[in-house]
Structures are given as C-alpha cells and as structure tokens.
Amino acid sequence: xxxxxxxxxxxxxxxxxxxxxxxxxxxxxxxxxxxxxxxxxxxxxxxxxxxxxxxxxxxxxxxxxxxxxxxxxxxxxxxxxxxxxxxxxxxxxxxxxxxxxxxxxxxxxxxxxxxxxxxxxxxxxxxxxxxxxxxxxxxxxxxxxxxxxxxxxxxxxxxxxxxxxxxxxxxxxxxxxxxxxxxxxxxxxxxxxxxxxxxxxxxxxxxxxxxxxxxxxxxxxxxxxxxxxxxxxxxxxxxxxxxxxxxxxxxxxxxxxxxxxxxxxxxxxxxxxxxxxxxxxxxxxxxxxxxxxxxxxxxxxxxxxxxxxxxxxxxxxxxxxxxxxxxxxxxxxxxxxxxxxxxxxxxxxxxxxxxxxxxxxxxxxxxxxxxxxxxxxxxxxxxxxxxxxxxxxxxxxxxxxxxxxxxxxxxxxxxxxxxxxxxxxxxxxxxxxxxxxxxxxxxxxxxxxxxxxxxxxxxxxxxxxxxxxxxxxxxxxxxx
Amino acid sequence: xxxxxxxxxxxxxxxxxxxxxxxxxxxxxxxxxxxxxxxxxxxxxxxxxxxxxxxxxxxxxxxxxxxxxxxxxxxxxxxxxxxxxxxxxxxxxxxxxxxxxxxxxxxxxxxxxxxxxxxxxxxxxxxxxxxxxxxxxxxxxxxxxxxxxxxxxxxxxxxxxxxxxxxxxxxxxxxxxxxxxxxxxxxxxxxxxxxxxxxxxxxxxxxxxxxxxxxxxxxxxxxxxxxxxxxxxxxxxxxxxxxxxxxxxxxxxxxxxxxxxxxxxxxxxxxxxxxxxxxxxxxxxxxxxxxxxxxxxxxxxxxxxxxxxxxxxxxxxxxxxxxxxxxxxxxxxxxxxxxxxxxxxxxxxxxxxxxxxxxxxxxxxxxxxxxxxxxxxxxxxxxxxxxxxxxxxxxxxxxxxxxxxxxxxxxxxxxxxxxxxxxxxxxxxxxxxxxxxxxxxxxxxxxxxxxxxxxxxxxxxxxxxxxxxxxxxxxxxxxx
Lengths: 480, 480
Known about the structure:
Oligomer: homodimer
Number of domains of chain A: 3
Distance between the termini of chain A: 39 Å
CATH class of the largest domain in chain A: Alpha Beta
Number of helices of chain A: 13
Low-confidence stretches of chain A: none
Largest interface: A-B, 56 and 56 residues
Strand order of the largest sheet of chain A: 3-7-8-14-11-10-9
C-alpha cells in the first residue's frame, strides 16, 4: 500500500500551490509534454461529460443541432475579418507540412471556428427560409499560451462547445445571445453552484470581431475574476467579408446577423477553486460523476459477507436516483479510503459496519461539512436526497457570500488601488466610457473592466480614473 | 420554393457518382476547403451521436472510463516505436509554429494516440494494483490523405473513439481485444444493420506496431471491402520503448501489455453505401436520429386545424418510444415533403389528411420498401413499432444476402483474377502464409488479404499464388 499523501498546504495560505496540488493529487489532470497541455483524467472528464449532457439537452430543446466542422483553417480565412485576425493570430498553431510535403498555404488549427463555419454558411444560406441556422459543436480548441498556464484555467488545448447561429435581423441575433446567456447562467449557478455576475464586455475586452460580447464572471477565493462563458452578437461583421447573404421576404438581398457563444473546460478550474478545501476537491452533487461512495467496514473476515451484502443492497437502492459505487478494494483500511474519496471530492460517503447492521442503520458523511449523520436503513433514500440537496445549496450560498463580500463600491482612484491591492475582488466604480481610461487603469493596476451591467446604475458619479463625467458603473477586477 | 433535385444516377449504374450525390443532396456532408476535409451536417452528426451513445454505454458497462489526451504529439514520441513511426509518418500534419514563434520540436497532430497516451501511462502505472487501465476518448483524428478521398470513407480529418488499455498479462490483453471486437460486432450488425465478417489481419495489413490486429470487414455494393473497426493487441511493443512497467504480485518488475481499438465516422460511409437506394439515403431505424416524419395533408385552410391537431396527437403518443417530428412547413406541397424525407432517409413517414381523420386512420409509408399501410388510429403504436422492426430486419437481411453472394471460393489464380475482375467481392482462397505471395497478389490484382478467419478452415489446399502448401483459407478483396 503506497503511502497516502494529501494536500500539504492550506488554501488560505498558498492558493496557487494549493490549486496545483488539488488538480494533480485528486487526479483531475496531469501535465502534458507540450507546454500548457494537460491530460483530462477520469474525474475531470466525468464532470465535463455531465456538463455536456446538461447543456446539450438545453440547446437541443431550443432548436440547435450538433454538427462538426474541419479543425484546419486556411490562413487566408483568418485574414478576412481584420480585428479577428489580429486578436487570434498570436495564439494560432500553424501546420506547414503533411508528411514530407510542404503545404501551399499554412493551415491554422482552430482557435475558434467562426471563419471556417462562415465559409460553409455562405454556401448553405440562400433565402429567409434557410434562417435561422442554429448549430453547435463540441470539440477541442488550440491556442498557444505563452503566459503562465494553469490546468483548466489557461491551457494551450481545451475542450468547449461553440454555438454558431445566423439570423435575419439584429433583433433575432440579440434574442439568441441573451437566451444562451440565460442557459449558461442556469448551468453555472444551479449545477456547478458557482455564482456569477453577468453583463456586457467593454470595447477593449469584447471578442475580436464582435459587435458586443456578453459574459458571466465568477470571483475566485484569491480575489481574481474568472470569465466562465461568453455569448457574442457578431452583427454583420463576419457576414459581410464572408458574403453570407439571403433573399429576404421582399426579395431583397441582405447579409445575415450572426452570433457565437461558448463555455469550456475552464469551468472545471472555477469549480475546483471555489469549492475545494484543505482536504482537496469538493464536487457539487448535481455535477459530480460519482455522488456517493459506499465504504464497507469490517475487521474480521466473518463480518465481511454481511457487510458486503448490506453495501450491495444500499447501492442497488441508491442507484435508481444517484450515481453510487462501492469501494471494495482489499488491502486498504477504511480510513485510507475515507481520505482518498475526500481528496477526490465525492459529495457523500456511506459507511456500513457490523454495528450498523445490528442497529439497522448507516452512517452518512457529507464532504462539505464533514457532518456525520446516523440514519435508519428505512430512511436511507430520503436522507441521502436531503443531504445532497442541502450540500448543493450550502456550496452555492458559501460561494455567493464570498462573491458579495468581494464587491466593493469605490469612490476614487486611491480607494480603487487600495481595494485591489488589499482584498482584490470586484471594484465597482464609475467610468467615463473611454478606452483610454480603461487602458491606463490596466497598465497601472492590472485590473480590467470585467462587466458592464445590463441595467444602468442610477448612481453614476465621476470616472474613477479621469474624474470626468461618468457614463456607467462597471466592475473592475484583476482576472485569470 | 426552390426546385427539388433528387438523385440523378442509378446506384447500379454509376456507384461512385451515386454516392457523391447521396452524401451531398441528402445533406450528410459538404466538402471543406482543405483537401479531404468535410463538414458533418445535422443528419450525419446525428447518426454519429447515436453511435456514440450506444457504444459509450457498452464500454462504460465493461469498466472503461472516458478521458481526454492532448492532440499535439512531439515528433520524438512517434520515433520511439519504429514500425509505428514508419506506418504513420507520411500522413502526419506537422505544426512548426505557434503565432510567430518557431517551435523547438515539430508537433504532430494525432493520427492515433498510442504514443502520447503511453507517455502518461508510464507515469501513472506503478503496481499490479493500478491495472488494468481501461480508458477511451472520443475525438478528431488527422491523417493527410493524398490518395483519392471520399466523404466519411477516406478523409483527412475524421471522428472516432480510441480505446487504450494496459494489462498484467498477454491473456488479459487478448480477452480485452476480443471483448471489444464482440461489442463492435453487435453495434455494426444489430444497429447499423451492416453485416460483416470478422477475423485477424495479416502481418502486412496489421496496425503499425501491433502484435496482431482483429477487424470487421463489410462488403460494399461495388464489390469492394470496407474495414469498419479494428481491435489490436499491441503486446509489449510499445510498453518497452515507453517504459510502462509495473511491480507484479511477486514484486517483480514487468512491462504491461497494451491494446487499442477504434471505430470511426467511416461507419457512416458503409451505412450510406449499403442501405442507400436510387431515391437517396436509407437509415436503419435503430440508428436514425429521426425515425418518423409526420406529414399533415390539407388543401383548404378549413381542414388545417383538425389535421394539425391529429398530427400533434400522433407525435405526442409516438415520442414516448420513437424520435418523431412534424413537417409543418408552409408553402411546400405534401409531395415535395415526401421526396425530401425520402432523399434524407427517414425510415417511416406518416401521412394524415382529412379523409384519414374521418376514417380514424393514418397512412404509414416505409422508406425501404415504399410499402403503404393504412392503420387504425388505435393500432398506431403497435403498427409503427412492427414496421420499424421489420425494416431493420429487412435491411440487414438484404445486406447479408449481398455479402454472401459476394464470397466466392476460388481454386487457382486464374479463377481468382477472373472473380475479382468480374464480380469483385471476397475471393476465399488458400494461402501459404508468406508476405511475398500476398504482396505479389496485391501488385498484380490490387486485392489484399482482408481477413484471416479466427477458426482455421479444414479444407486448406495449395496457395492460390505460389501453389506451395497452403496454411490458411483467407479472404482477399479490393478495398476502400
């Protein structure tokens, strides 16, 4: 039996090292040979599969279809939309050869698929009858990260879904953007138990080539914001250079309005940072691939049979509503198993020993509170369900409180800098709307505008940087 | 309303052109800008999703876990196993730059993932307790095809699953290989309704680096074989150069035994070729994303409400057990809709018109036989179920008969050549077991050994090429 090594640093003391240890020791990921790449192991991929299942159902219900487009994009495609090219070209991995043959044109591995997809849209769309086009793909994305990489949060290869739609009017595209943002909101808050603030991006922070970008931002325990999803209205910025045109109901030729939107395996990074604790990973029950581990406890072989039978019975009952497994490995003590599954974040542990059998009871232990609950066998389903529900709510509420504590309304630039330096988080401040002020703040403090709320704040005061008339109250923060 | 264009050539007269028309006109795929790439459209990706769901359940039930490994593989990794390198290097797309930076080492985009996965296995596996490792990934694969490409059948990018496992002994690896082959067999025959023959590959045809390869081969209507899946025992051929070692139960260090196995979107090519007809695509009911289309028929607007209500009722009832949609588009005649869904291969059409409502009946039309069945409303579920079952069986049986008709036992090389030239298909012949004879046959006729049956034939005669003592009766064929 290998010696067991848990997390050796406290989350509150060395957050960055704590994160690395949780990711590797809970076996979420391992580092790849190419800088910034990781292997997604069983647990992290299991969470991703659950995210896929939940979100896939949502988009299918709203009329979207899954498809798959080529991953290799000719260099000339990127160049058709100038802002887009500038935004992405530093991160593109370029293919120059196939086998021994030098290619006539370099091919980029998709850093996002607008350009290749619009090539096809321009072939497929002819008439208003063809609209809207509502497609989505689940795929890998390559973006060479030269800055510091971090598993899940910033990697040179990640997994995501990218939705791409084309509409007759700006209004239809607006509706699509907001509808998807709402679905992301539901997924992230109600399944991942990660509270977010939502709104628009500033001109400097929007997607390269977009008319506007909407986003969801979470707040990490170290005071840095994490962008967890984006939904863009791309206007006609792409449909013009890519010549995606349709005949409208009046027989007039028009360009379509497009949107794109995505969430990625970065969500896993947010989940780990927000819910993990000094013992390791903590998975919210609604997103955990395995919700319950049953640990049979016996010290004499004469006890084994009865305990195992009881464990099997419990599993059979529970697996109707929950995902559950029995840890029946030989040669490991119950205590060793407890530690392992705590490290790996299983929401609920059920312990069954000889005394429990005698008393027709089982012991439930919640991962978030470590609370022990002795329940009657006959109450098992009810109590398990209540425990998991309560854990889901508790994780969300804790995170929500942390988010709220991290929002500080600041009045002037001095206070702004002090807040960012001391507690971090979101500095809520008035802003004149000029790129220049945003850039200066970024250069001087490292903070960017993360969110411009959809609803304009009534109490706009002077711009936190230039003291001229403010236009909006926005959320600044340092970010991953 | 655009003019409708169906398939304009007969399958029996110009198979290749027929295939291209079915693929594009039924909107299965569209050609990409990079040679050999395609866009998987809604229908083809929908079939692939069904394949994924069915096979994913199978592998999870047998203890495999989904994971995801990096797609970029350092060139040095490929070189560790010499045969493997030679086999794949002509097809690899090489990445040389990220943004403006020239990379220190070229990176290949995965043409298959053994080498990158074994890099991780060597880090993860220490003891017999860590075995078996049973992982799988669903992903895209890039192989530059310089020969003639064909949508789904031979493309420079395709989708697949690749399973990778590590075991303590050769016997465990053997069992895994055969278990997976059996699952492939079930999927392909019982869901895709594509009959296959199964067996081993010859030394020349096996996977580059394998100990042995098992395979499933289908027979296309033009007399060419199509390999539909492979399951390899890789022995210790990779675990030695990649140093994947474990301490066995006696504390002795050993190399693991590995397997790998895959099925790809090539299955869609087989499906189209085998079941399609002069009207277009035909999807077997068990693999069709949409099994039933309901077409409401009315000519006066006064009839519309009652017909639509009946159609909605039917849909509501049917969708409990089947995937069903109503084609309620305005401005298209029922006849136009019939043609469209025949072209697109929907297994069953239900027509509902005013007369049907009066008679409390509906009309079912099967895609494979074009048979019309008038059924009582009260019998709807039973009759639909029976029709779809019968269609599934009928498609399989027709294909099975075609396969059997295409197997010819040949006695000598003259007959061998004549059979391959006239009717094609599998030429069953004795073979001495030497690479040389196989190579000569390939050079002279284009046919290769597709299958060496698992069960040795009793009636081995002289080698079809060299006339020396035969060792096995094998299946030769030209292949895609």
